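Single Protein Entry

Contents — chain, fold
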Amino acid sequence: MTAPAAPLALRRYGASDAATLLDTLTDVWAEAHAGHDDVAQAGFTPETLRRQITGHARRDEFTLIVAYAAGQAVGIGYGFRCTPDYWFGDLRPAITAQARDTDSLAGICELAVRTGWHGQGVGTSIHAALVAALRTQWVSLLAMPGDSPARRLYDRLGYEYAGPYRVGDGPVLDLLLLRAGSATVA
């Protein structure tokens, strides 16, 4: 299903807005991941998203971008500046030296677009706004392994695979890394 052509408006929010927008963020995320059994099997649910956003909103420079069309939220993305130790954890020694030793790193935690809006540049626009707002040399994110539309987007944006990433007994995810100056427009 293709969404009607409507102008896209991106709005930037900070940590103080996260609690107010939590229901909207969860709704967009849930629709974007509906039918993705791998996401649910990995333990990612709307409730875990709510806890994740609430915890991350305490971080400095928490930045949230919401894409609106005709007044409806059609996509979301958020991230924050962080240290390589925080973001890469035990994988840090395997990361390229420039990213491993940088003091200019951002982690993008979520990027989700309602299904009717896939393929219309919403994810690319949100990503570009996040990268511009966070103003770092390096950007990293975690993705489900495999050939998904999200992973194809990250590849088009210029992300490179940095290694498998697991926190505790959680699922194995792909750690992706982008030198912000090398970001491309898909």
The domain at 8-182 is CATH 3.40.630.30 (Aminopeptidase). The longest strand covers residues 72-82. The CA atoms of residues 55 and 106 lie 16 Å apart.
